[in-house]
Specification:
single chain; 137 residues; alpha/beta; Rossmann fold; 4-stranded parallel sheet; 4 helices; 38% helix; globular
Length: 137
């Protein structure tokens, strides 16, 4: 059976969605494939996000991830939007939800750590909901 494909989507694909992709791969790769993408890209992943994820989880996002457009990822079964505070990108899928996360870009390390911990918790809950059949994709 193919694993469910989960796309973490945000406008710029440079911070929260990248963190979610990295944590999805770390904590839920046995249940779903994690991708991130946006309607626009940035030249690099947010340096603070890279540093905090490396510090907290020993994941170097710059080695395995780049900012990419929605068209560059496989068709997802599940789309998770990060809380864009603008028009979140539309991506066809079987299930969609918005995590409503504040963007920590340009803020303190504490805000990045808080965002990372919230994403970790939400990724683990998403994994449980998929495993239990609460979310079918």
């Amino acid at each position: 059976m193919n694993k469910v494909k989960v796309a973490f989507v945000c406008v710029h694909n440079s911070c929260r969605s990248q963190m979610a992709e990295a944590l999805g791969k770390k904590f839920a790769s046995n249940v779903f494939e994690s991708y991130s993408a946006g309607t626009e890209t940035k030249p690099a992943i947010d340096k603070d996000a890279v540093r905090i994820v490396k510090q907290l989880y020993d994941i170097d996002m710059e080695k395995t991830q780049v900012s990419k457009l929605i068209q560059a990822i496989p068709q997802p079964d599940i789309v998770i939007t990060m809380g864009c505070n603008v028009n979140c990108p539309y991506v066809p899928c079987k299930y969609r939800e918005d995590w409503g996360l504040e963007d920590p870009t340009g803020k303190s390390d504490d805000e990045f750590i808080r965002a990372a911990r919230i994403i970790e918790d939400k990724v683990l809950k998403l994994k449980e909901r998929i495993m239990s059949g609460e979310i079918s994709a």
